[in-house]
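Appendix B. Raw example, untouched.
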Amino acid sequence: SNWSVGDVWRDLPAPGSTTEEVVLRASQATWLEVRDGSGRLLFSRELGAGERYRALSEDGLTVTASDAGLIEVFVDGQSFGLLGEPGLPADERPVHAAAFTVADAEIETAG
């Protein structure tokens, strides 16, 4: 038959443009804003305790929160911990797996 492996991969995003499922879960009520890469506002309201906001992480997706320590970030089902320091706001923080691994590496090498 004329089936090929290429057919399987054809409709997937090109390398480097992969979208990941991002879930932001609030442990307590906190204000949340989500913007896409062009700065367009996708979400802007208070998340209640235990509420989740689910998005697909495209290039440039950022999150602003009134208390970064109240937001836990999941990428493709894996927890990447808190959005930021408890009690401190997060200002247009990028959310995708690479952003968190880079941030962790910076913290580890800083000391």
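End of appendix B.
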